[in-house]
Amino acid sequence: xxxxxxxxxxxxxxxxxxxxxxxxxxxxxxxxxxxxxxxxxxxxxxxxxxxxxxxxxxxxxxxxxxxxxxxxxxxxxxxxxxxxxxxxxxxxxxxxxxxxxxxxxxxxxxxxxxxxxxxxxxxxxxxxxxxxxxxxxxxxxxxxxxxxxxxxxxxxxxxxxxxxxxxxxxxxxxxxxxxxxxxxxxxxxxxxxxxxxxxxxxxxxxxxxxxxxxxxxxxxxxxxxxxxxxxxxxxxxxxxxxxxxxxxxxxxxxxxxxxxxxxxxxxxxxxxxxxxxxxxxxxxxxxxxxxxxxxxxxxxxxxxxxxxxxxxxxxxxxxxxxxxxxxxxxxxxxxxxxxxxxxxxxxxxxxxxxxxxxx
Amino acid sequence: xxxxxxxxxxxxxxxxxxxxxxxxxxxxxxxxxxxxxxxxxxxxxxxxxxxxxxxxxxxxxxxxxxxxxxxxxxxxxxxxxxxxxxxxxxxxxxxxxxxxxxxxxxxxxxxxxxxxxxxxxxxxxxxxxxxxxxxxxxxxxxxxxxxxxxxxxxxxxxxxxxxxxxxxxxxxxxxxxxxxxxxxxxxxxxxxxxxxxxxxxxxxxxxxxxxxxxxxxxxxxxxxxxxxxxxxxxxxxxxxxxxxxxxxxxxxxxxxxxxxxxxxxxxxxxxxxxxxxxxxxxxxxxxxxxxxxxxxxxxxxxxxxxxxxxxxxxxxxxxxxxxxxxxxxxxxxxxxxxxxxxxxxxxxxxxxxxxxxxxxxxxxxxxxxxxxxxxxxxxxxxxxxxxxxxxxxxxxxxxxxxxxxxxxxxxxxxxxxxxxxxxxxxxxxxxxxxxxxxxxxxxxxxxxxxxxxxxxxxxxxxxxxxxxxxxxxxxxxxxxxxxxxxxxxxxxxxxxxxxxxxxxxxxxx
Lengths: 359, 509
Description:
Chain A is mostly helical. In chain A, 71% of the residues lie in helices and 5% in strands. Chain A folds into two domains: 56 residues, no CATH class; 279 residues, ABC transporter involved in vitamin B12 uptake, BtuC, CATH 1.10.3470. Chain B has three domains: 232 residues, P-loop containing nucleotide triphosphate hydrolases (Rossmann fold, 3-Layer(aba) Sandwich), CATH 3.40.50; 173 residues, Rossmann fold (3-Layer(aba) Sandwich), CATH 3.40.50; 73 residues, no CATH class. Chain B is globular and about 70 Å long.
């Protein structure tokens, strides 16, 4: 007996709906087993997660707070992935955006006219992320250096640079030794809409529209799509692939840089270790789960935000170790991502004949 | 072979049905092949020929039907099973290990040779078989040293060495020069004379008439006829194969060449391995003229087309378009200079299979109005453009939004053709434009090329189909190892003369 995966001729609509649902159910069953090991009632745990992430206005606002950077970085990596440029450096690009915004807030806020502070931070954050993305893009376009390695390495540089700054030269002298810079002056605070939800949400929504428009309505978007689907055909039709890599990474890095700016100016209002908590990596999962579709990224980022907040609630309400929440999150992602193969493939079991060798 | 009572068939396939998701590849096919005969399996692409033979050689299992070998029902579960029953197949893509010798490839996978094969003995056996069937090849040579034709002989030797008496060859002449084809035909005949049953798959009518005793014609997965070649002719076979009358002669007006449109001078370039692929190629093509490039695949044709269209760097020499030097310009500049390109690798280079036909048709026109409005793309203009081309070039598709990968090969080529002819400003580089196409689509492509020529286009036609070159070209240049062996006029030469040049002999001037 052999088990084979057969590619479906068309993506099954039924599977597209059923598979994620079933995957989620399986993940919850799997998670339940782990929770039982910790002598926690799984139903109670799941209720806490849902209640804590979606069950109240406050819960919803906290979920949105986590969703904003995921939306921006998710959109950023998605546009690069569309072109098969494997930018896994959103984390570093976000960090550089945060550093640039913090620099303006800390050292220029009193020298600039008040209303110009936030716009300047915006531009600085976007530019810093873009430049950070441009370095691996240039290495790839000019020298053919593998971007998976370079974008990843650039993350470590950026993350450690953030650490160096808030522990060293930018450390708050009045901070009683706490790691972090001083709080930004109020002109450098991003306005909040409700709870801790800040204007970054609007940035993210506008960015989604922008990305959709670029991909679907411009010549540039058409070129990105042709390169992503068939680079040889792109070259053949006269598309300059190297130049497009640079352009796309400007946008991709810029969006992640903006996420960093929004985080420091909207949430922490200072530079500290809470900036680089892995949004840029989660963004990769968000982008793929959403099939690189901008609207899908908004939705998936929101759900992922709920998962993060719900996981925190497990620690707070049930006193579970932080690692358990991470295991649950991992299990859900594992099942949902793993399940997606069944949308494009179907399993067939072939029974071998015993009489094979005679005749 | 004496004259006895009719021998029992070596192969009987009865009611073979094979389904693939969405396709009925073989629909209750019956086939009988007798020892001592050469049988042709004729049909267009997608008619089910290869599927049927893959069933017989154990690669696929039929959904229905039975197979009898020398009268005994068999179940074939793998090529190994098949060879144990004396059935062997030479595939279109050879399955040889390049870094091993001929003899090593021949005994590869055999469990009868023991742990330490006695190679002297193997060499002797191979030489004996070579002698017997006219398959000249040195058993100690490495595969990478051999020409494609020699590699094919190794594949056949592999089967003979395993004692196959039912041999299947899938489009064996596609990679051969006319001389090599003639050699192969003699080998097939000798094998039949020894009492073996030989089946070869083809869509070329000339080959059926020249090689085979009998022919079975498949169309859309069904057998439409089984005939003796002595009792039929090409016209009837073509009608059976296509299902309608086919024109063999395309109307071709005499050429009225204008000024020189494309001039290539002493062109040199390297192949992907960094070895010289073009070694000083020169020619001119005038407006309103088709220059054919003949040659066995791999003698620099691909590199020539790529250098002209800017996809590969020239290491020496020049390419001029109406006198303007475009050597080593970017593909974009060369497109703007007026050169269109029908690439040899249709799906890998010429199309974006996952994108809709409308996007594929726009690949050259999207930079300029009406499809472009500044940096924006006018999607509705793109749809109109696609609808117009779909109609003008009779592309059979449910809608312009259908992904290109869902089209048949012929319609995919129509998409490429429509785009390139529309974008063309006088020069067309067509590489293997009818390869893999069925008779109907081939006819359409050839007609379109001739029409473009009559409208004044200069066309470089690279083809491995000598008939096609003789029919369409006004002049033919023969390429061998990156050099032009000679330029001839089709009306004043013979396929044999071209064949000699394809094998490396210079034309006498």
